[in-house]
Amino acid sequence: MKISVGEAIVKYLDNQYVSFDGAEYKFVEGAFAVFGHGCVLGIGEALATGKHGIKVYQGKNEQGMAHVATSYAKQNNRRKIMPCISSIGPGAANMVTAAATATVNNVPLLLFPGDTFATRRPDPVLQQFEQPHDLTVTTNDAFRAVTRAFDRVYRPEMLYSALENAMRVLTDPELAGAVCVAMPQDVQGEVYDFPDEMFAKRVREIRRPVPTESELAAAVKLIKASKYPLVIVGGGARYSEAGSAIEEFLSECNIPFAETQSGKSTIPCSSPYYLGGLGVTGNAAANEIAAKADLIIGLGTRFSDFTTSSKTLFKNAKAFVNVNVSRYHALKMHGTVVVGDVKASVEKLTELLKDYRTAYAEEYVVARKKWVAEADRLYKTVYSKSLVPEVKAMTPGTLEDFHKATGAELTQTAALGLIRKLIPRDAIVVAAAGSLPGCMQRLWDTDSLYSYNMEYGYSCMGYEIAGALGSKLAAPDREVYAMAGDGSYLMLHSEMVTAVQEGVKINVLLFDNGGFGCINNLQMGKGIPSLATEYRYGAKADTPFVPIDFAMSARAYGFKAYTARTLTELEEALETAKKETGSVLIDIKVLPKTMTDGCIHGWWQTGVTHNPKTEAQREAVNELEENLKKYRF
Questions:
Q1: Assigned CATH for 213-370
Q2: For 388-439, how does the pLDDT look when each residue is reduced to its tens digit (9 = 90+)?
Q3: I need a labelling partner for 632 at 20 to 30 A (CA). Which of 7, 180, 442, 480 fits?
Q4: In sequence order, what are the beta bridge partners of 15?
C-alpha cells in the first residue's frame, strides 16, 4: 500500500485492538493534537483527509492534552489510549512533564512529537534545539528520561517496527507508561510501499501472568505463620480489576485492608475489612493497624514513601509478601516476591489458604469506628473567631486576613463533607496535588468502583482539570468532579476550553485557600518564615491577601460559575450544578490551615537544614534524627 508515513500511522492506529478476559476493545478511538509546523502537514494532513475512525480533539496546551489522555487511559483501566501529537520544540517539551506523570503511574500514553528534518537541509529549522557537541540531539531527547520506550523514525522503513514496539510496551501491564515516537517532519510526508499486513486488524491480548508454584508456596508459608497480617491494595489491583477476588480472600482469611491513592475505589468502602488510606496521607485506623501488623501483603503497590511513611510505618512487620506484575516493585521492602497479575495471584492464594484464619477479633473494626467518629468531627468543623487550627506555625492573622479579603467562612474539611454528601455516589473525583490528596485519602468514601482518580505518583499540579476531562470522555454517563486547589488551577486549566468546545460537562470544584497551603504548612512547620507560598502582595507574609475571582475567569471560557463562601452557598451551588448540562466551576473560598494535617502514626522524611538558626529548625533536625533510627529497610 503506497501511502505517506503520516497516513500509515493513522491507518495503523485505527486497526489496533486489545482483549482482556475475552472482551475486545478498540485501543485507539480518539487522538489529541496541538498542531504546529512540525505536525500539521504530516500526521495532521492524514487525520484531516484520510478515511479513519479516530476522533481528533483540539488540545489547548500540550501538557494539558497529554494529561487528558493519561486520565482517559486510567479511567478505562488501560484498555484504551489517546495518542497525542505536537509540533517540535516547545510543543514537544511541554509534554515531557505529562510523559513523566504517565510513566510513574504505569499508565499507557503514546506521544508523537514532531522533530527536525531528517535531511538537515533547513538546519536549524524554526524551534530547533541545537546541541553543538551532538547534532543528533533534539528537544525530543528529553523524553528518553521519562518514557518506557523512545524511538525516532528517520526513514519510512523504520515505521512498522517503531509502532509495533510502541504497542508492545503500551499493552504490557508491567511496562505500561509513556512511549515517544519522534517524527521528523519531512519523513511524515514521505511515501513508501508499506506491507498490507501492517494495516490488518490486530488484537493484542492483555495477559494475566501467574506466579510460580514456589513463589506461591513461600507466600503461603509466611501468611500462615502470621497472626495479624494487613493487605495493602495498590494501583495494580485496580488495573487487574481484582476487587471481588481480593474481597473473597479477605473474607476467607479475616484480613483487613488499607489502600493507596491509586488503589482507592478498587473495593467499596462498605467492605467490613476496610480501613481506608494509609501512610503519610492515611488515617488513624489504617496506620494504627499497619503499625501493629506482623505481615504486610502488598497487592500491586510500589511502596512509595507516602505509603510507607518513609519506611517507618510497619514497626512490627516481620516480613512482606509482594504481589506485582513487576519483579522490580515486588522486590521492594526485602519482600517475598509473587510475580503475577493481582487477580490471578490472589485467586490462587485463596485456594491455598482455605484452612487459615487470622487472630484478629475486633481490632480493625474498633479502629475503623474511632476514625469514622473523628472524620465526622472534621466534616462538622466550622469557622469561628476562636477557631485555632492544629498547626504549630501560622502567619499571625492568617485566618482573619483571608476572611477579610474573600469573605470565606468555610473550613476545607467541612466543604469536603458537604460535597461528599451531595454529589452522586458514583461520581468520579479527580485530584492530584496540594492538601486535597491528604484530606481525600483520609476522609473520602468510595462506594462505587473506579470513582477515585488521584494522580499521586507524580503529584503533578495541573493534572486535575485535564484529568477530569479525560475521565469524562472515558465515562460519559457519570458526573466527574475536578478537585483542584487554586495553585493547580493557575498552573494549568487550559482544557476547560476543550470541554466547552466538545460540549462535555465537567465540574471544577476549586478550593481557594490563598496559595500553596500544604507547602506553606511544610515550610513554616520546619521553622522557615512564610515566603512565596501565600498569595499576598509581593509574596510577603505581612501584606494582605490578593483576592482572586476565579468564577469570573471560568465564565469567560463559557462555564457556569458560582462562588461559595459558606456552607449554604456551597450547597446551593452544588445542587444547581447537578442540574446544569454544561460545564460548571464553583469557586470555594476555604480558610487557610483548615485541611487535615500531620502524619497520623507516621512520619515523612524531608530535607531540613543541618545548620539550624531557630528553635523550630532545631526541633526539625531532632525529629529527623529520631525517625532515621526507625528505618528498617
A1: 3.40.50.1220
A2: 554 455 677 788 889 899 999 999 999 999 999 999 999 999 999 999 999 9
A3: 442
A4: none
Q: Where along the chain do its domains lie?
A: 2-205, 213-370, 385-589
Residue 221 and residue 237 in contact, taking contact as beta carbons nearer than 8 Å = no
Which cell numbers in the block locate residue 251? Answer: 473474607
Domains 213-370 and 385-589 share a fold: yes
- Residues 571, 415: Cα–Cα separation, whole Å: 9
What sections of 535-596 are H helices per DSSP? 550-557, 567-579
Q: 380-413 burial string, b = 16+ CB within 10 Å, else e?
A: eeebeeeeebebebbbeebbebbbebbebbbbbb
Which residue, among 27, 24, 30, 7, has the nearest Cα to 16 in the 3D structure?
Answer: 27
pLDDT digits (tens, 9 = 90+) for 261-314: 999 999 999 999 999 999 999 999 999 999 999 999 999 999 999 999 999 999
Residue in the block written with cell 497479575: 341
- Domain 2-205: give its CATH architecture: 3-Layer(aba) Sandwich (3.40)
Q: Does domain 385-589 have CATH number 3.40.50.970?
A: yes
Whether pTM exceeds 0.90: yes
Pick from 597, 123, 106: nearest CA to 326: 106
Query: Any alpha helices (H) in 14-127, and if so which ranges?
Result: 43-49, 62-75, 90-93, 96-104
